[in-house]
Specification:
By secondary structure, this protein is α/β, with parallel strands linked by helices. 33% of the residues lie in helices and 18% in strands. The protein contains nine helices and ten strands. The strands form three sheets. A four-stranded mixed beta sheet has the order 1-6-5-2, sandwiched between helices. It is globular, with a radius of gyration of 17 Å.
Length: 255
Amino acid sequence: MPYLAENEVSLMSYDVPKMINDQGGQIRIFMPRYGNINERRHQLHEVIRLSGMNLVVNDLDMPLIIKVASIPKERIQVYFIDNDEYFKRKATFTDEEGILYPDNDERAIFFAKGVVETVKKLNWVPDIIHVHGWMAAMLPIYMKHYYKDEALFANTKIVTSVYSQSFEGNLDIEMINKVKFDNIPLEVISHLETPNYENIIKASIMHSDALIIASDNLSPSLTKFIETSGKPFLPFAPKDKFAELYTNFYKSELL
């Protein structure tokens, strides 16, 4: 919010950074520049000094465009990861028939790389990267392998919020090979052999430093996977309690 329709993920990916911002922390939000975001109304503009590099996805060079906007009244900057091939279409994840876009897997890979490359160009060292939603689920995997030698992120911790908001069916069955193309070992991404929602989230969980159960109605299988992962995790917190619990969780488990 306010760039996408209200749902659990879009609300929390605004509320959590706002909470840290209100406490005097320094935050930046990164999201895909989906084609249904009205650039004129929200006053997005391209950041030329950050744009212009190409990211390789499955052996193809894809230009990275960075746009930025400020959330009114909040002094919060939002960076939009853009590419005409992946994000120009006028919806988020599915076409007008409700069918998943066939390249959603590549969009997720592009987004993960785009976020990290932008943070590198900003020369900004985040203490915590907090991942919301399955489109961002490749970020922990790429941070732990593809970018593992980046000195900038030596002390950065990754928190993943796990939501029940999912999708039906599978992403491209070749997804695992596209991730493997980036020299990520097959054994650590075996869940992606069947790239459905739960398996993508499980792969993300395995590469996170800490986890938050962000939906009250999370599936029993994902809940059990989190509880038995050996990672620090925070059980579901209702809206009126999340601020204090999230803050304490950040401090006790990560900083």
